[in-house]
Amino acid sequence: KPVILWLRRDLRLADHPALTAAVAEGAPVIPVFIRDEQVEALGAAPRWRLERGLEVFARSLAARGSRLILRQGPAAEVLDALIAETGAGAVHWTRAYDPGARDRDGAIKSDLKARGIAARSFAGHLLFEPWTVSTGAGGFYRVFTPYWKAVRGRPVGPLLPPPEHLPAPDRWPASDALEDWQLGATMHRGAAVLARHTEAGEAAAQARLDRFCDAAIAQYQDRRDFPAEPVTSGLSEYLSLGEISPYRCWHQAQRQRDQLGGSGPETFLKELAWREFAYHLMFHSPHILTGNWRPEWDDFPWREDPGAADVLAWKQGRTGVVFVDAAMRELWVTGKMHNRARMIVASFLTKHLMTHWRVGQAWFEETLTDWDPASNAMGWQWAAGSGPDAAPYFRIFNPDTQLKRFDPDGAYARAWIAEGQKSPPETALDFFQAVPRRWRLAPGAPYPDPVIELGEGRKRALAAYESRKSMG
Ligand code: FAD
After folding, report:
1. If you measure from the C-alpha of residue 339 to the centroid of ligand 1, how many angstroms do you get, rounded to a whole number?
2. CB under 8 A, 24+ apart: contacts of 413-416
3. What is the Å distance from ligand 1's center to 364 Cα?
4. DSSP 298
5. How is the chain split into domains, by residue range?
6. From 199, 229, 271, 419, the catalytic residue
7. Residue nearest to atom 35 of ligand 1 (CA)
8. What is the DSSP-derived secondary structure letter of residue 153?
9. Given ligand 1 and candidates 247, 275, 350, which is best to mutate, with the most ligand atoms within 8 Å of its CB?
10. Most exposed: 214, 335, 364, 381, by fewest CB within 10 Å?
11. Domain 295-471, what fold?
12. What is the mean pLDDT of each run of 10 residues along the chain (472 residues)?
């Protein structure tokens, strides 16, 4: 009986336990991707990026004698229909950890099992299943350092070769055409510009990891905070869609550590563990996605208007604060943003503009091609001060000081801010290509004045913080 391989955020052939187990059954394997409510709920850029990923993944399946079947509708109904059409006896998938997916998957699993269909979920998205890491007292970790100590020496999942060939059914079930789905259609942004910064798929991911290990990992510890330097791995979008396994990143970095020594590889492993920690937190406390982790923040006088004039300036890269604008433009053009820059723009929004982190979280969800529910929520709550193991609210980044420190020769600012440059680089001009016309931005216009004087913004934020403390 055929095995249905239900693909979600695991668009790869190597290190894919659910796929390997399906092939091992010796029966035909029917790979399917379902456009269900979870896909519909994705922001515009993640949907667009998903479309790129599906396109490449379908090609690599075809090269191995298989196909990617595309269906839409509630996952339970689609799977039922496919089981009826193909006579499948099993459904395999890689586990997901956000509350919506867990509810969906749990219901599907018990329903299939009750009907005698083998429903098997596998690890593959994470190095450490969230429920396998617990504190001495038996709870979950709320602070990263002890979490890291608990996981750093653990063995992680195996490297599994991609199957040469996937056994095909005699007759393939019908599939939608990916072009008809128009997944990228909601992205009102110069997709051609974004496409130049996006290379989807497993081969591209592996090439990036190899390049990173060869050329950058040795400097990773010292230079990873300098946003103009190509020192970080750029693997986040691939990890987000599962185009590369975290196992592979982990094993390869460990090999570098053992061969090269130095602190670069170890620091990289630690960053991979931050991703794990984000999932650990989300799994044990899904509330992190939607509300202040620390309830005492609920009475903070956040502003929460996503259309406020200063918030729009933040979104559109025209706050008049160079580091913030450079970063927001980098995001708009590439779909990604350097980690240091994410910290700066998040601090600016939540502190200088006193805007609720949820507004920033939602904007990132809409615009990042590496959007990840767990890392995004953790990152925002960290920056806002409301999260576990967060930066204290009163520690307010000064974007100008940060720029001097982490962009000492102005390379990052020049790469993204065209205004005031005689011949701006392509990246800076790309921004104006990629913005919607209604934003009315042009490279020749003068660079805007700051939406808020930095000292004033800082004072206002601290006063709000103090008043809240005295309230509480
Ligand atoms: P590298 O420095 O090469 O790190 C390797 C990998 O480790 C990354 O690909 C990522 O998977 C993981 N990682 C590194 N730093 C972090 C971190 N702080 N938290 C969690 N995982 C980490 N990351 C996302 O993947 N998606 C998001 O939606 C996202 N939103 C964020 C929002 C805010 C406000 C902040 C402060 C951070 C956010 N991050 C997010 C984390 C981090 O900024 C990115 O993972 C990183 O910049 C990606 O670049 P890279 O792959 O070159 O990272």
Report:
1. 6
2. 413/322, 413/323, 413/326, 415/228, 415/326, 415/330, 416/317, 416/325, 416/326, 416/327, 416/329, 416/330, 416/333
3. 12
4. G
5. 1-124, 126-155+190-284, 295-471
6. 271
7. 379
8. T
9. 275
10. 214
11. DNA Cyclobutane Dipyrimidine Photolyase, subunit A; domain 3 (1.10.579)
12. 98 98 96 97 97 98 98 98 98 98 98 97 98 94 96 94 95 98 90 92 98 94 94 97 98 93 94 98 97 92 95 97 98 97 98 97 98 98 92 91 97 96 94 87 88 96 84 52
**Gap between the Cα atoms of 357 and 316, Å rounded:** 17
Q: Which helix (H) or strand (E) holds 92?
A: strand 90-94
Which residues line the pocket of ligand 1, CB cutoff 6 A? Answer: 224, 232-236, 239-240, 271-272, 274-275, 278, 339, 342-343, 346, 364, 368, 370-372, 375-376, 379-380, 383
Nearest residue CA, atom 14 of ligand 1? Answer: 271
Q: Return the closest-CA partner of residue 170 out of 279, 30, 283.
A: 30
Nearest to 341 by CA among 305, 314, 366, 373: 314
Q: Which two tokens stand for residue 95?
A: 């586990």
Identify residue 436 by its one-letter amino acid code: P
- 271 catalytic? Reply is yes
To test the pocket of ligand 1, the residue of 271, 363, 402 to mutate (highest count of ligand atoms within 8 Å of its CB) is 271
- Are 1-124 and 295-471 the same fold in CATH? no
236 alpha carbon to ligand 1 midpoint, in Å?
6
- Does residue 353 contact residue 314 with C-beta atoms inside 8 Å? yes
What is the model's pLDDT at position 55?
98
**Considering 357, 371, 382, 416, which one is annotated as catalytic?**
357
Beta strand 118-122 with 29-35 is unpaired
Report CA(78)–ligand 1 centroid distance (Å): 33
Q: Is 274 in the active site? A: yes
Q: Which uninterrupted H or E stretch holds 258? A: helix 246-260
- Fold classification of 126-155+190-284 is 1.25.40
**What confidence score (pLDDT) does residue 278 get?**
98
The predicted pLDDT at position 470 comes to 62
**Residues 6 or more apart in contact with residue 239 via CB below 8 angstroms:** 246, 249, 275, 370, 372
Pocket test for ligand 1, best of 254, 375, 389, 402 (most atoms within 8 A of CB): 375
Q: Does domain 1-124 have CATH number 3.40.50.880?
A: no
Rounded distance, CA 132 to CA 283, Å?
Answer: 11
**Which run of H or E residues covers position 365?**
helix 357-367
Q: Determine which one of 380, 382, 398, 416 is catalytic.
A: 380
